[in-house]
Each structure stands twice: as structure tokens, then as C-alpha cells.
């Protein structure tokens, strides 16, 4: 099982762009062929038939992530993700992965602030196997101190490797901690080390009992299947699991912020400095009207790969930056984010990159975007989407996580119509509503004076919807 991972810069820069678009078709059509039904126990099932090869992909997403943890226990969501592979009475420790491997498939899992997901890809003939095993561990997990406590040491070591030895990840944690004044997104998904050391078997059992139930999950099956086939198997394996007593999701919300925040981190492991700025933004669930779609178009205009304003002006035209970009993340259940970043070329000061980004934001807020920029952005988005539609697991993950964070299948299918209705005026209005200094944090990642480095360039901080595996 793949574990904790910080998203690399290239993937990060395109995340919101790709996830919003990778299944798009012209506005007269839905995004993709899909069907949905709900079992009597409350489990919503979505079927995405794709008959290109005798392969299927299953993803089960629970509507519970790090931000749903008890005070001092936010990392338990990720801890439990690890423990879910420790086995049940029917399928013992490690059997799940060994069986998937034995049948030529692969399996994995991930946790973010809002969801925890388990997924497998395998030959169609083995779909009953992975459905049976996944359903079994929904309410059959066996946990005890001899099983749990060694895994606690594993996740603590992961934090050492992925956070304590990564200045970019450290800066990202610090930026989240000051960007959010009250909301649990301010806490790291993996948890603070001093709190991780206190996790108990009962903590894991409590989170499992509270959140892992069919009426708090979304199941998506993609690949060489029909709705009738999936429904029969879902009723057989998931149907007998009783509903859970799942409480409504309640979280602390953000107060008004009175000042922008700034974080500077110096490290001997940093060779190339970098700057990033993150603004709070509405998510798909919390945005009003078409604001989220306007922000997606803005993201493409300003940060589009190799053609966006930031890349053209800072990297190509002015020759100031090695890289520059932006990212709108609309995926979280509560607050989303809009982030900018850049790293200077040799001989250029990082402060010049910050000033150049400031100038681009000021120009955007004063002059807006043109109708032609909007039209070109939509065209690029559609082309990129069409190229990405062959992804079996990408479609399933996107649908499952969107539904688990508050969208309906109808919302997802309506994306082409909504994006096509975005105007230049909509983009400017959304930019003015979001790019407000008091709702931002700026991060500076700098080499430690006098330190011998040679480390690779830092990656930008991950958006708040980022997950760990």
C-alpha cells in the first residue's frame, strides 16, 4: 500500500484544472455516461461503464477525513486508513492486498481533510472478490493493541520522512496554520507528532465506529460493467451491512480576518528560494451562483500550463522565474483556495517574483480579462478534457470525491453548461471577491544564510484539498 505523499509541483499546478475538466464534452452533452442508485442501507452507488477492456475499478469513499477528527486527534483519519489493511475475521492481516496482487490487480488508499478513500483496479472477473473484501472491512475490522501500536510508529516515521525532512512541506503546514484562524483545515492531515504519539487503539475504533457506515459512503464502479451487474453485486455484498448512526457534519467556521499573514522559513535544505500566496476561496459546495466555475476559468487564464499569464510574463517575457503558476482548488467540503507561486532564476531575487505576482494580481483586478481570453481558456479546457477521458480511475475518483463533499451527480454532469456560461465579467467579479489581502497568507522559502545546500528546487505548498496516501 502506498502511504504518505506530498504532491509534486507539476501535478499540483494542474490538479484543479484537470479534475474539473478531465471528463468534459461539449456543453450539449453530459460529462460522461453514468448511472446511480442507492441501497436501502443508504449507500450511494455510481456506475461509470467504459467497455474498452475487461477491467474494472472500485473506489469506496467515506465522508470523513482529517478535519472530522476529535480535538487533538485529527490525524486519526489517516491512521485508520493504514489500519484498514490489518484485516478482519474473514480476511486476515494483509490478505486484502495479497489477494488483489495475486489476481493481477492493484489497490491503494488516500486521506484528505474531508474524505478517506479505498480503491482497487482488477480484471472484471474479479470484481466480486474486491467488492466482497471491501464490504467485509466496512464493519468487520479487528483492532487490538498488538495490531495498532506498531502502525502508530509507522505513521510517526512517515511524518519524519515527509514533513520533518521537507522544508516545502513544513512551510505548507505553517501557512495552513495561519491561513485558517479557526477551521480544522488549519491542522495537518497526518497530525502533529506530539499528538500522534498519544493515539490509542480506542481512538481508531471510535473514529471507525462513528464514520464508517454505508450511509456515510459513496461507492463508484467504473469499467467494463453494466448498472444491472453492479446493482446485483452491491446488494449482495454491501446490502446486508446495517446503517450507522452518523451525526451531521459540524465544524468550526472562519471568523473575519483583519490582516494578511506572512510566513518565512529558512532551511539549509533549500537551494532555490520560492514564494507562494494562498487566498481562501469558495468551494464547489460553498460557492454562490457560478463563482466556482468563474474561478476555474480564471485559473486557466492566469495559470494555464505554458500559456497562462503568469508563465508567459514571468518566465517567457521577463525571464524572471524558473517556474510560476496558480491553482484553484474547489474540491474541499468547506473552504477552497486560490494559490499563486513562483521561483526566481539564478541572479534574480525572490522578492522580485513576489512583486511581479503582485503586479499581475493588481492588473487583473483593475483591468479584468478579455472575452477572447475567456473563449480561449474554455477551448483549451475542453481539449485537455477530451484527451483525459480515457482515464478509468480518474473519472471514478473525481465522481466519488465530489459526491462525498456535497455535490450531486447532476451537479457534476452540468459542468459543461455552467462553464460555458461564464463571462469575462463573471471572472472579474470572482477575482475581486477572492483576491482580498486579509484572506491570504504569503509564504517565503529561503536558503539558510551560509549553509551549503545543493538540494532540488522546493515544491509549492499543496492546496488545502490535498491528500496523503
Automatic annotation (TrEMBL):
Cofactor(s) listed in the protein's UniProt record: Zn(2+)
Family: Belongs to the peptidase M16 family.
Annotated keywords: Hydrolase, Metalloprotease, Protease
Positions of the Peptidase M16 C-terminal domain: 200-380
Species per Swiss-Prot/TrEMBL record: Dongia sedimenti
SUPFAM superfamilies, alphabetized: LuxS/MPP-like metallohydrolase
Protein name: Pitrilysin family protein
Signal sequence bounds: none
Amino acid at each position: 500500500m502506498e502511504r504518505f505523499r506530498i504532491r509534486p509541483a507539476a501535478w499540483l499546478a494542474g490538479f484543479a484544472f484537470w479534475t474539473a475538466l478531465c471528463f468534459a464534452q461539449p456543453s450539449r452533452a453530459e460529462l460522461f455516461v453514468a448511472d446511480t442508485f442507492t441501497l436501502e442501507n443508504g449507500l450511494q452507488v455510481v456506475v461509470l461503464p467504459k467497455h474498452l477492456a475487461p477491467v474494472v475499478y472500485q473506489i469506496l469513499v467515506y465522508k470523513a477525513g482529517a478535519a472530522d477528527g476529535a480535538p487533538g486527534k485529527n490525524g486519526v483519519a489517516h491512521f485508520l486508513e493504514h489500519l484498514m489493511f490489518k484485516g478482519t475475521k474473514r480476511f486476515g492481516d494483509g490478505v486484502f492486498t495479497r489477494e488483489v496482487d495475486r489476481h493481477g490487480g492493484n489497490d491503494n488508499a488516500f486521506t484528505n481533510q474531508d474524505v478517506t478513500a479505498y480503491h482497487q483496479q482488477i480484471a472484471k472477473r474479479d470484481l466480486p472478490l474486491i467488492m466482497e473484501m471491501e464490504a467485509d472491512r466496512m464493519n468487520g475490522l479487528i483492532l487490538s493493541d498488538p495490531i495498532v501500536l506498531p502502525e502508530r510508529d509507522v505513521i510517526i516515521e512517515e511524518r519524519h520522512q515527509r514533513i520533518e525532512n521537507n522544508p516545502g512541506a513544513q512551510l505548507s503546514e505553517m501557512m495552513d496554520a495561519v491561513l485558517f484562524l479557526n477551521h480544522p483545515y488549519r491542522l495537518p492531515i497526518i497530525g502533529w507528532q506530539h499528538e500522534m504519539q498519544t493515539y490509542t487503539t480506542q481512538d481508531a475504533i471510535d473514529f471507525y465506529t462513528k464514520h464508517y457506515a454505508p450511509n456515510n459512503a459513496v461507492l463508484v464502479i467504473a469499467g467494463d460493467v453494466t448498472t444491472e451487474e453492479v446493482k446485483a453485486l452491491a446488494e449482495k455484498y454491501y446490502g446486508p451491512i446495517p446503517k450507522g448512526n452518523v451525526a451531521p457534519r459540524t465544524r468550526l467556521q472562519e471568523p473575519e480576518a483583519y490582516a494578511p499573514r506572512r510566513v518565512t522559513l529558512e532551511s539549509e535544505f533549500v537551494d532555490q528560494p520560492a514564494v507562494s500566496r494562498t487566498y481562501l476561496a469558495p468551494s464547489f459546495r460553498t460557492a454562490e451562483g457560478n463563482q466556482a466555475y468563474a474561478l476555474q476559468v480564471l485559473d486557466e487564464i492566469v495559470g494555464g500550463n505554458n500559456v497562462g499569464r503568469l508563465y508567459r510574463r514571468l518566465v517567457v517575457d521577463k525571464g524572471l522565474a524558473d517556474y510560476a503558476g496558480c491553482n484553484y482548488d474547489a474540491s474541499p467540503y468547506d473552504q477552497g483556495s486560490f494559490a499563486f507561486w513562483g521561483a526566481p532564476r539564478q541572479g534574480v531575487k525572490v522578492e522580485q517574483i513576489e512583486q511581479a505576482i503582485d503586479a499581475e494580481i493588481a492588473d487583473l483586478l483593475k483591468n479584468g480579462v478579455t472575452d477572447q481570453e475567456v473563449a480561449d481558456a474554455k477551448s483549451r479546457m475542453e481539449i485537455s478534457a477530451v484527451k483525459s477521458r480515457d482515464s478509468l480511475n480518474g473519472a471514478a475518483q473525481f465522481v466519488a470525491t465530489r459526491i462525498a463533499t456535497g455535490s450531486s451527480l447532476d451537479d457534476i454532469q452540468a459542468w459543461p453548461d455552467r462553464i460555458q456560461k461564464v463571462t469575462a465579467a463573471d471572472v472579474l467579479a470572482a477575482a475581486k471577491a477572492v483576491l482580498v489581502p486579509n484572506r491570504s497568507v504569503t509564504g517565503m522559502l529561503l536558503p539558510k544564510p551560509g549553509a551549503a545546500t545543493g538540494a532540488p528546487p522546493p515544491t509549492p505548498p499543496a492546496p488545502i484539498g490535498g491528500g496523503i496516501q
